[in-house]
Design a protein that fits this description.
There is one protein chain. The chain is flat, with a radius of gyration of 32 Å. The N and C termini lie far apart (108 Å). A two-stranded antiparallel ribbon has the order 1-2. It has 15 helices and two strands. It folds into three domains: 25-83, Orthogonal Bundle (Arc Repressor Mutant, subunit A); 96-175 and 212-239; 270-344. 25% of the residues are buried. With 345 residues, it is mostly helical. Helix 2 (29-43) packs across helix 5 (71-83). 58% of the residues lie in helices and 1% in strands. It has helices at residues 2-16, 29-43, 50-57, 61-64, 71-83, 96-113, 129-143, 149-172, 187-190, 195-210, 213-233, 270-277, 293-306, 320-333, 335-344, and strands at 238-239, 245-246.
Protein backbone atom coordinates (compact mmCIF):
# COMPACT_ATOMS: atom_id res chain seq x y z
CA UNK A 1 0.00 0.00 0.00
CA UNK A 2 2.79 2.34 0.89
CA UNK A 3 4.56 1.49 -2.35
CA UNK A 4 1.41 2.33 -4.32
CA UNK A 5 1.14 5.66 -2.60
CA UNK A 6 4.76 6.44 -3.31
CA UNK A 7 4.31 5.67 -7.00
CA UNK A 8 1.19 7.80 -7.16
CA UNK A 9 2.94 10.61 -5.36
CA UNK A 10 5.87 10.37 -7.74
CA UNK A 11 3.49 10.54 -10.68
CA UNK A 12 1.83 13.57 -9.19
CA UNK A 13 5.19 15.25 -8.72
CA UNK A 14 6.16 14.59 -12.38
CA UNK A 15 2.92 15.92 -13.78
CA UNK A 16 3.16 18.94 -11.57
CA UNK A 17 6.72 19.77 -12.72
CA UNK A 18 6.87 22.92 -14.88
CA UNK A 19 7.27 22.19 -18.62
CA UNK A 20 10.19 23.89 -20.36
CA UNK A 21 9.19 25.96 -23.39
CA UNK A 22 10.23 24.63 -26.80
CA UNK A 23 13.17 26.66 -28.03
CA UNK A 24 13.14 27.22 -31.78
CA UNK A 25 16.45 27.61 -33.58
CA UNK A 26 17.22 31.25 -34.25
CA UNK A 27 16.06 32.25 -37.72
CA UNK A 28 18.85 33.48 -40.01
CA UNK A 29 18.88 35.28 -43.35
CA UNK A 30 20.12 32.08 -44.96
CA UNK A 31 17.03 30.25 -43.66
CA UNK A 32 14.82 32.94 -45.16
CA UNK A 33 16.60 32.86 -48.53
CA UNK A 34 16.50 29.06 -48.78
CA UNK A 35 12.80 29.04 -47.97
CA UNK A 36 12.20 31.78 -50.53
CA UNK A 37 14.04 29.77 -53.19
CA UNK A 38 11.89 26.76 -52.40
CA UNK A 39 8.74 28.86 -52.78
CA UNK A 40 9.96 30.28 -56.10
CA UNK A 41 10.91 26.82 -57.37
CA UNK A 42 7.40 25.58 -56.64
CA UNK A 43 5.38 28.53 -57.88
CA UNK A 44 7.65 31.03 -59.63
CA UNK A 45 8.58 34.54 -58.63
CA UNK A 46 4.95 35.67 -58.49
CA UNK A 47 4.35 33.17 -55.68
CA UNK A 48 7.29 34.52 -53.72
CA UNK A 49 5.61 36.62 -51.02
CA UNK A 50 6.54 37.36 -47.45
CA UNK A 51 3.49 35.43 -46.29
CA UNK A 52 4.36 32.33 -48.35
CA UNK A 53 7.93 32.29 -47.05
CA UNK A 54 6.77 32.77 -43.46
CA UNK A 55 4.31 29.89 -43.83
CA UNK A 56 7.04 27.62 -45.13
CA UNK A 57 9.24 28.50 -42.17
CA UNK A 58 6.41 28.17 -39.66
CA UNK A 59 6.76 31.74 -38.41
CA UNK A 60 4.77 34.94 -38.69
CA UNK A 61 5.55 37.34 -41.55
CA UNK A 62 6.77 39.86 -38.96
CA UNK A 63 9.63 37.50 -38.11
CA UNK A 64 11.03 37.95 -41.63
CA UNK A 65 11.34 41.70 -41.27
CA UNK A 66 14.24 41.23 -38.90
CA UNK A 67 16.22 40.04 -41.94
CA UNK A 68 14.73 41.78 -45.00
CA UNK A 69 12.99 45.14 -45.25
CA UNK A 70 10.35 44.14 -47.77
CA UNK A 71 9.58 41.84 -50.70
CA UNK A 72 11.94 43.75 -52.99
CA UNK A 73 14.79 43.15 -50.55
CA UNK A 74 13.80 39.49 -50.35
CA UNK A 75 13.92 39.16 -54.14
CA UNK A 76 17.34 40.82 -54.18
CA UNK A 77 18.65 38.41 -51.56
CA UNK A 78 17.35 35.45 -53.57
CA UNK A 79 18.92 36.81 -56.75
CA UNK A 80 22.23 37.22 -54.96
CA UNK A 81 22.13 33.64 -53.74
CA UNK A 82 21.60 32.25 -57.25
CA UNK A 83 23.44 34.67 -59.51
CA UNK A 84 26.39 35.86 -57.47
CA UNK A 85 28.41 32.75 -58.23
CA UNK A 86 27.77 32.68 -62.00
CA UNK A 87 31.17 32.39 -63.63
CA UNK A 88 33.03 32.35 -60.33
CA UNK A 89 34.30 28.83 -60.99
CA UNK A 90 35.79 29.59 -64.41
CA UNK A 91 39.38 28.30 -64.47
CA UNK A 92 41.70 31.30 -65.03
CA UNK A 93 44.29 29.04 -66.67
CA UNK A 94 42.12 27.99 -69.63
CA UNK A 95 42.22 29.91 -72.92
CA UNK A 96 40.00 32.97 -72.88
CA UNK A 97 37.51 31.70 -75.49
CA UNK A 98 37.14 28.43 -73.58
CA UNK A 99 36.48 30.49 -70.44
CA UNK A 100 33.68 32.32 -72.26
CA UNK A 101 32.04 28.97 -73.05
CA UNK A 102 32.43 27.90 -69.41
CA UNK A 103 30.63 31.10 -68.35
CA UNK A 104 27.82 30.39 -70.82
CA UNK A 105 27.48 26.81 -69.57
CA UNK A 106 27.29 28.04 -65.97
CA UNK A 107 24.46 30.43 -66.84
CA UNK A 108 22.68 27.60 -68.63
CA UNK A 109 22.98 25.26 -65.67
CA UNK A 110 21.60 27.76 -63.17
CA UNK A 111 18.67 28.95 -65.26
CA UNK A 112 17.62 25.48 -66.39
CA UNK A 113 17.69 24.32 -62.77
CA UNK A 114 15.76 27.40 -61.59
CA UNK A 115 13.90 29.01 -64.53
CA UNK A 116 12.52 31.76 -62.32
CA UNK A 117 16.09 33.01 -61.91
CA UNK A 118 15.87 34.85 -65.23
CA UNK A 119 13.20 37.16 -63.80
CA UNK A 120 15.66 38.30 -61.14
CA UNK A 121 18.32 39.44 -63.60
CA UNK A 122 16.91 42.93 -63.73
CA UNK A 123 14.26 45.25 -65.06
CA UNK A 124 13.97 47.63 -67.98
CA UNK A 125 15.81 50.32 -66.06
CA UNK A 126 18.04 48.44 -63.65
CA UNK A 127 20.35 45.41 -63.61
CA UNK A 128 20.41 43.37 -60.42
CA UNK A 129 23.76 43.80 -58.61
CA UNK A 130 24.32 40.04 -58.57
CA UNK A 131 23.82 39.81 -62.35
CA UNK A 132 26.07 42.84 -62.84
CA UNK A 133 28.78 40.96 -60.91
CA UNK A 134 28.27 37.91 -63.14
CA UNK A 135 28.58 40.11 -66.24
CA UNK A 136 31.75 41.61 -64.82
CA UNK A 137 33.26 38.13 -64.58
CA UNK A 138 32.45 37.64 -68.26
CA UNK A 139 34.03 41.01 -69.07
CA UNK A 140 37.16 40.01 -67.15
CA UNK A 141 37.39 36.87 -69.28
CA UNK A 142 36.98 38.91 -72.48
CA UNK A 143 39.77 41.22 -71.35
CA UNK A 144 42.14 38.25 -71.46
CA UNK A 145 41.65 38.04 -75.21
CA UNK A 146 42.99 40.37 -77.90
CA UNK A 147 39.76 42.34 -78.40
CA UNK A 148 39.63 46.11 -78.43
CA UNK A 149 37.15 47.93 -76.19
CA UNK A 150 34.39 48.22 -78.80
CA UNK A 151 34.63 44.57 -79.80
CA UNK A 152 34.64 43.57 -76.13
CA UNK A 153 31.45 45.54 -75.50
CA UNK A 154 29.75 43.97 -78.53
CA UNK A 155 30.82 40.50 -77.41
CA UNK A 156 29.54 41.07 -73.88
CA UNK A 157 26.06 42.03 -75.10
CA UNK A 158 25.91 39.20 -77.64
CA UNK A 159 27.02 36.50 -75.21
CA UNK A 160 24.84 37.59 -72.30
CA UNK A 161 21.67 38.21 -74.29
CA UNK A 162 21.81 35.16 -76.53
CA UNK A 163 22.81 32.81 -73.72
CA UNK A 164 20.01 33.92 -71.41
CA UNK A 165 17.47 33.99 -74.24
CA UNK A 166 18.24 30.52 -75.56
CA UNK A 167 18.53 28.98 -72.11
CA UNK A 168 15.33 30.59 -70.84
CA UNK A 169 13.42 29.07 -73.76
CA UNK A 170 15.06 25.73 -72.97
CA UNK A 171 13.87 25.97 -69.37
CA UNK A 172 10.32 26.97 -70.28
CA UNK A 173 9.84 24.85 -73.39
CA UNK A 174 12.42 22.08 -73.78
CA UNK A 175 13.10 20.64 -77.21
CA UNK A 176 12.97 16.97 -78.03
CA UNK A 177 13.41 14.48 -75.25
CA UNK A 178 13.51 10.69 -75.58
CA UNK A 179 10.06 9.68 -76.83
CA UNK A 180 8.85 13.29 -77.05
CA UNK A 181 9.21 14.88 -80.47
CA UNK A 182 9.06 18.63 -80.72
CA UNK A 183 6.10 18.29 -83.05
CA UNK A 184 4.16 16.43 -80.36
CA UNK A 185 3.47 19.74 -78.64
CA UNK A 186 1.83 20.93 -81.85
CA UNK A 187 -0.46 17.97 -82.32
CA UNK A 188 -3.57 19.71 -81.02
CA UNK A 189 -2.89 22.75 -83.20
CA UNK A 190 -2.24 20.57 -86.26
CA UNK A 191 -5.59 18.83 -85.84
CA UNK A 192 -7.25 21.95 -87.21
CA UNK A 193 -4.38 23.02 -89.46
CA UNK A 194 -4.60 23.26 -93.20
CA UNK A 195 -3.27 20.32 -95.21
CA UNK A 196 -0.40 22.51 -96.39
CA UNK A 197 0.65 23.35 -92.81
CA UNK A 198 0.37 19.69 -91.77
CA UNK A 199 2.60 18.62 -94.69
CA UNK A 200 5.26 21.20 -93.81
CA UNK A 201 5.50 19.93 -90.24
CA UNK A 202 5.38 16.29 -91.24
CA UNK A 203 8.47 16.75 -93.44
CA UNK A 204 10.62 17.97 -90.54
CA UNK A 205 9.10 15.94 -87.71
CA UNK A 206 11.80 13.25 -87.82
CA UNK A 207 14.57 15.82 -87.44
CA UNK A 208 12.72 17.65 -84.69
CA UNK A 209 12.39 14.39 -82.82
CA UNK A 210 16.19 14.05 -82.68
CA UNK A 211 17.16 17.69 -82.13
CA UNK A 212 18.00 18.30 -78.48
CA UNK A 213 18.58 21.32 -76.30
CA UNK A 214 22.24 20.27 -76.13
CA UNK A 215 22.38 20.55 -79.93
CA UNK A 216 20.95 24.06 -79.82
CA UNK A 217 23.37 25.15 -77.09
CA UNK A 218 26.30 23.66 -79.03
CA UNK A 219 25.16 25.66 -82.07
CA UNK A 220 25.13 28.81 -79.94
CA UNK A 221 28.64 28.06 -78.69
CA UNK A 222 29.90 27.61 -82.26
CA UNK A 223 28.33 30.90 -83.32
CA UNK A 224 29.86 32.66 -80.33
CA UNK A 225 33.33 31.28 -81.06
CA UNK A 226 32.99 32.37 -84.69
CA UNK A 227 31.95 35.89 -83.71
CA UNK A 228 34.82 36.17 -81.25
CA UNK A 229 37.26 35.00 -83.89
CA UNK A 230 35.86 37.47 -86.40
CA UNK A 231 36.16 40.24 -83.81
CA UNK A 232 39.80 39.33 -83.21
CA UNK A 233 40.65 39.26 -86.89
CA UNK A 234 38.16 41.59 -88.50
CA UNK A 235 38.33 39.90 -91.89
CA UNK A 236 38.52 36.15 -91.56
CA UNK A 237 38.87 33.51 -88.90
CA UNK A 238 40.00 29.94 -88.58
CA UNK A 239 39.05 27.13 -86.26
CA UNK A 240 41.01 24.05 -85.31
CA UNK A 241 39.45 20.64 -85.20
CA UNK A 242 39.03 20.85 -81.42
CA UNK A 243 36.95 24.01 -81.77
CA UNK A 244 39.44 26.54 -80.39
CA UNK A 245 39.68 29.86 -82.14
CA UNK A 246 42.78 30.39 -84.20
CA UNK A 247 42.74 33.95 -85.54
CA UNK A 248 44.92 33.70 -88.60
CA UNK A 249 44.48 36.99 -90.40
CA UNK A 250 46.43 37.59 -93.56
CA UNK A 251 44.82 40.94 -94.29
CA UNK A 252 47.58 43.37 -95.06
CA UNK A 253 50.27 40.67 -94.90
CA UNK A 254 52.33 40.46 -98.05
CA UNK A 255 54.02 37.04 -98.21
CA UNK A 256 57.75 37.51 -98.22
CA UNK A 257 60.83 35.39 -98.34
CA UNK A 258 63.52 35.70 -95.76
CA UNK A 259 65.80 38.63 -96.44
CA UNK A 260 69.55 38.58 -96.39
CA UNK A 261 69.68 39.27 -92.68
CA UNK A 262 67.66 40.11 -89.57
CA UNK A 263 65.64 43.34 -89.35
CA UNK A 264 66.92 43.96 -85.82
CA UNK A 265 69.87 42.61 -83.83
CA UNK A 266 67.54 40.28 -81.94
CA UNK A 267 65.88 38.72 -85.01
CA UNK A 268 66.92 35.32 -86.29
CA UNK A 269 70.21 34.93 -88.08
CA UNK A 270 70.31 32.76 -91.19
CA UNK A 271 71.91 29.95 -89.18
CA UNK A 272 69.22 30.13 -86.50
CA UNK A 273 66.48 30.16 -89.11
CA UNK A 274 67.81 26.98 -90.70
CA UNK A 275 67.51 25.23 -87.31
CA UNK A 276 64.03 26.59 -86.64
CA UNK A 277 62.55 26.07 -90.10
CA UNK A 278 62.78 22.28 -89.84
CA UNK A 279 60.73 22.33 -86.61
CA UNK A 280 57.71 24.20 -87.96
CA UNK A 281 54.61 22.33 -89.17
CA UNK A 282 53.69 22.67 -92.85
CA UNK A 283 51.22 25.40 -93.68
CA UNK A 284 47.73 24.88 -95.06
CA UNK A 285 47.98 25.35 -98.81
CA UNK A 286 44.31 26.31 -99.13
CA UNK A 287 43.04 29.87 -99.15
CA UNK A 288 45.15 33.01 -98.88
CA UNK A 289 48.92 32.80 -98.94
CA UNK A 290 50.45 32.06 -95.56
CA UNK A 291 52.32 34.84 -93.79
CA UNK A 292 56.07 34.25 -93.80
CA UNK A 293 57.10 31.89 -90.99
CA UNK A 294 60.47 33.55 -90.36
CA UNK A 295 58.88 36.96 -89.89
CA UNK A 296 56.22 35.43 -87.60
CA UNK A 297 58.86 33.73 -85.43
CA UNK A 298 60.76 37.02 -85.19
CA UNK A 299 57.57 38.82 -84.16
CA UNK A 300 56.70 36.28 -81.48
CA UNK A 301 60.24 36.44 -80.09
CA UNK A 302 60.07 40.25 -80.06
CA UNK A 303 56.87 40.09 -78.03
CA UNK A 304 58.37 37.59 -75.58
CA UNK A 305 61.49 39.73 -75.13
CA UNK A 306 59.67 43.02 -74.59
CA UNK A 307 56.40 41.87 -72.97
CA UNK A 308 54.38 44.35 -75.06
CA UNK A 309 50.71 43.58 -75.86
CA UNK A 310 50.22 41.69 -79.09
CA UNK A 311 48.71 44.71 -80.81
CA UNK A 312 51.85 46.74 -80.03
CA UNK A 313 54.27 44.40 -81.78
CA UNK A 314 55.95 46.48 -84.55
CA UNK A 315 54.19 46.28 -87.91
CA UNK A 316 57.37 45.04 -89.63
CA UNK A 317 56.51 41.62 -88.21
CA UNK A 318 53.11 41.61 -89.92
CA UNK A 319 49.60 41.35 -88.51
CA UNK A 320 49.53 41.04 -84.71
CA UNK A 321 46.46 38.79 -85.07
CA UNK A 322 48.56 36.40 -87.13
CA UNK A 323 51.31 36.42 -84.51
CA UNK A 324 48.79 35.77 -81.74
CA UNK A 325 47.08 32.92 -83.58
CA UNK A 326 50.30 31.25 -84.71
CA UNK A 327 51.84 31.51 -81.22
CA UNK A 328 48.79 29.98 -79.60
CA UNK A 329 48.63 27.10 -82.07
CA UNK A 330 52.35 26.39 -81.84
CA UNK A 331 52.28 26.61 -78.04
CA UNK A 332 49.49 24.08 -77.76
CA UNK A 333 50.97 21.54 -80.18
CA UNK A 334 54.47 21.79 -78.69
CA UNK A 335 56.09 23.48 -81.68
CA UNK A 336 57.05 26.65 -79.84
CA UNK A 337 58.70 24.73 -77.01
CA UNK A 338 60.86 22.92 -79.58
CA UNK A 339 61.73 26.20 -81.29
CA UNK A 340 62.73 27.79 -77.99
CA UNK A 341 64.87 24.77 -77.05
CA UNK A 342 66.60 24.84 -80.43
CA UNK A 343 67.45 28.53 -80.11
CA UNK A 344 68.70 28.15 -76.54
CA UNK A 345 70.99 25.24 -77.32
Amino acid sequence: MTGSMNIAAAGADVSAAPQRPVVRPRLTLRDVVLAARAVASAGGVDALTMSAVATRLGVTPMALYRHVDDRAALLAAVADSVLEEVGAGVDPSVPWDDAVVMWMADVRHRIVQSPWTAQLIGTETQIAPAWAAALDRLLAVLERGPLDDDARADALVWIARTTVGVVLLEAKSPLARPGHAVGAALESALETASPEMARRWARIDARLASYRDDDLFDDLVRQTRARLAAAVDGSCFGKRDDGHIVPESTAGDVPTTAGPGPDSPSDLTDAQWRRVRALLPPGDQRGAARADDRRVVDGIRHRERTGVPWRNVPSRYGSWQTLYGRHRRWSEDGTWARVTEALDS
